[in-house]
Design a protein that fits this description.
By secondary structure, the protein is mainly alpha-helical. The protein contains 17 helices and no strands.
Length: 295
C-alpha cells in the first residue's frame, strides 16, 4: 500500500521526517515489544530438542544466501537481510537487522519478499506433512523450523491440528520462539563485523557505540521481565499485538520511501534468493529429523 501511495502522493516532502522516523525508530520499537512475547524459561525447557535442527536450518539459510550473493552479485545488505529473514523470523528479523547494517528502505522492501513463502508454506505444509507421514511432534518441529513468520507457523500448525485432532500448535510455537532468540547473537555479530569492516576503511568515521543495536538489549530486557515476573497473557498479548502493529506501520513507511517500478525491475534476485533459502531450510529440517530418528 505504501509503495502504491508514493506513486500518487506528489508532494511527499512535508511527510518525509515522519516517514523516516517511522521506518527507523518505530521499527526498532516493534522489535523491543516483540520481547514481551518471549518467556525464556518456557522456551528453554521446550526448545532443547529442536536446537540442533534450528542451528542447522539457520546455518543453511545463511550459506545459501552467501553463495547466491556471490553467484548473482547481490547487494551485501540484500543477501544479509534475506538470509537472516528466511532463517529466523521473517519481517521481525529483517526489522532487527536493518538498522544494524544501515540498510536502505529499498533494500528492506526487496528483502521483505521472503514473507511470500510463508503464505505458501501455511497452505502447503499440512498436506505435505501428511504425505510424508510426519508425526504430530514431527510436524510441529517442521513448521517451527521451516516457516519464518510466527503467524504462518501458527496457521500451519492450527490447520494440522484441525485435520488430525492433535495439539501441535504449542510445540510449533515454542520451536518458533526458540528460533526468534537467534536475533540476539546475529545482530550483535553483525554489529561487530560492521565495526571491524568500517575500521579498515581509511578515514572512516564509524562509531561502534552509535551503531550498536541497543534496541536488541531492550528486547532481551523485555524477555527477562516477562520471564521473571511471569507476566500473564492479558499483559503480554496486547504488547505482542502492538509489536505487530508497529511493524505494519514501519513497513508502510518503508513502502512510501520505495520506488515500486525500480523495485520490480531489481527485486527478482532477492526473491529468488529467498525461495532458495526457504527450500533449503525445509529440506534440512526434514533431513535433520530423519537423522535424529524423529521421522
Amino acid at each position: 500500500i505504501g509503495m502504491v501511495l508514493t506513486l500518487i502522493l506528489k508532494e511527499k516532502e512535508p511527510f518525509t521526517a515522519g516517514i523516516n522516523y517511522t521506518s527507523k525508530k518505530i521499527l526498532q520499537a516493534a522489535v523491543i515489544f516483540l520481547g514481551f512475547g518471549m518467556n525464556l524459561s518456557q522456551i528453554l525447557a521446550g526448545g532443547k530438542q529442536s536446537l540442533p535442527i534450528i542451528i542447522s536450518t539457520i546455518t543453511t539459510s545463511l550459506i545459501i544466501a552467501f553463495i547466491l550473493y556471490k553467484a548473482l552479485k547481490l547487494k551485501t545488505n540484500n543477501a544479509i537481510l534475506v538470509g537472516v529473514g528466511s532463517s529466523i523470523c521473517g519481517g521481525s528479523a529483517i526489522a532487527a537487522t536493518a538498522p544494524v547494517i544501515d540498510a536502505t528502505d529499498e533494500e528492506v522492501a526487496q528483502s521483505i519478499s521472503v514473507i511470500l513463502f510463508n503464505v505458501l508454506a501455511a497452505l502447503i505444509f499440512p498436506t505435505l506433512g501428511a504425505v510424508l507421514g510426519l508425526s504430530n511432534e514431527g510436524f510441529g518441529l517442521f513448521a517451527g523450523t521451516a516457516i519464518n513468520d510466527t503467524s504462518s507457523v501458527t496457521a500451519a500448525a492450527a490447520a494440522w491440528d484441525g485435520i488430525h485432532a492433535s495439539h501441535t500448535l504449542e510445540t510449533a510455537t515454542i520451536v518458533k520462539m526458540t528460533r526468534t532468540l537467534a536475533i540476539i547473537p546475529i545482530t550483535l555479530a553483525l554489529a561487530f563485523y560492521r565495526e571491524k569492516k568500517e575500521k579498515k576503511e581509511e578515514g572512516s568515521s564509524f562509531s561502534f557505540k552509535k551503531s550498536f543495536p541497543f534496541f536488541v538489549l531492550f528486547f532481551i530486557l523485555a524477555s527477562v521481565v516477562t520471564t521473571i515476573f511471569h507476566l500473564p497473557a492479558a499483559v503480554t498479548g496486547p504488547l505482542k499485538e502492538l509489536s505487530k502493529f508497529l511493524i505494519v506501520m514501519a513497513m508502510a513507511a518503508i513502502g512510501l520511501n520505495t520506488n515500486i517500478v525500480h523495485l520490480v525491475k531489481t527485486g527478482a534476485k532477492p526473491i529468488f534468493t529467498g525461495f532458495c533459502c526457504w527450500v533449503g531450510i525445509s529440506l534440512v529440517s526434514l533431513g535433520m529429523q530423519h537423522m535424529m530418528g524423529l521421522w
